[in-house]
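step 3/5: co-fold with dtdp-4-keto-L-rhamnose
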Amino acid sequence: MRRILVTGQGGQLATGLAESLPAQGFEALLVGQPDFEFDKPATVITAFAALKPEAVVNCAAWTAVDAAEDDEAGAFRANALGPALLAKLCAEAGIPLIQISTDYVYDGLKGAPYLESDLTNPLGAYGRTKLAGEWAALAGNPMTSILRTAWVFSPVGKNFVRTMLAVGATRPELRVVADQHGHPTAAPDLADAIAAILARIRETGWQPAYRGVFHARAEQSTHWHGFAEAIFAGAARFGGPQPRVLPIATHEYPVKAVRPADGRMDGTKLTETFGVTLPSWQAGLERVLKALHPGG
Ligand SMILES: NC(=O)C1=CN([C@@H]2O[C@H](COP(=O)(O)OP(=O)(O)OC[C@H]3O[C@@H](n4cnc5c(N)ncnc54)[C@H](OP(=O)(O)O)[C@@H]3O)[C@@H](O)[C@H]2O)C=CC1
Ligand SMILES: Cc1cn([C@H]2C[C@H](O)[C@@H](COP(=O)(O)OP(=O)(O)O[C@H]3O[C@@H](C)C(=O)[C@@H](O)[C@H]3O)O2)c(=O)[nH]c1=O
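step 4/5: write tokens
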């Protein structure tokens, strides 16, 4: 197993995999829009046939959480019908599919870290369509691993770290919700973990235990306000902006989609099955801030 198809080229996670996969001896075959577009299934079928992958990591997704509320059909095409087609192609080729999913499949009401066996109950269109994508990927291909991750940030793309640094540079004071808990996960760390999972599959061959849902998120958790404070504390060393960050309640920051209040996820199953544990979110933040300030 050498040739890994990575969808969502240019996105946060695919960009990480472009570095992490070669480090484990894999060839990363990156595909992105418009050559590879879930809304145009023929492009997916053509790319798959041309590249002849030996495993697939599906990083392509509709990730605009609020916009999904206005176009759930569009989000469903990307987040559910896309994985369904990929799973069918993988099953026909007899190869593994790693489908990336989200903490937003949970309602956040458990009050303790979720286990993979806990019930899902998405609160919004994004979470609903991602959950449908999990089911489609599992139903369509016996060799499917679902990796639920959370609060992904990286040196590229749209994410909370880059938003905070940009907004913090223009405003003396920010208001950030302090009652939503989760695991900020650095895309480069998640990419390293996925490459290690694929290396394990290469080493052992596909095992029945690899099929199913796994939590793949950074160690430790925080709330968005805690994350924002850590971002500005870390950025201070690079001469970054230093706004005041006020903690607020969710209702004080009105947005279209409802987010889970507590999306913490237990990571034991991933560690026990694949021997993989992600670093803490604090270590991930350090890594991403350094990448944003090379030589700083
Ligand atoms: N970002 C986050 O905080 C989290 C993400 N996840 C999941 O992790 C995975 C990777 O996310 P991340 O790297 O952050 O995502 P990004 O938003 O950074 O990248 C998504 C990629 O998907 C592509 N894409 C969007 N719609 C389609 C489509 N219809 N057909 C083909 N490609 C499409 C985008 O292309 P283009 O740039 O052209 O639009 C982009 O390349 C996704 O499955 C996401 O749901 C899970 C938890 C948290
Ligand atoms: C920019 C900003 C956001 N917020 C709040 C809004 C929201 O409740 C929370 C997070 O905001 P964002 O919209 O950046 O994050 P959001 O798009 O909800 O992030 C999610 O993306 C999808 C793709 C996932 O899968 C999730 O795991 C999660 O990462 O912070 C503030 O309180 N103050 C601010 O200045």
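step 5/5: annotate
The CA atoms of residues 126 and 294 lie 34 Å apart.
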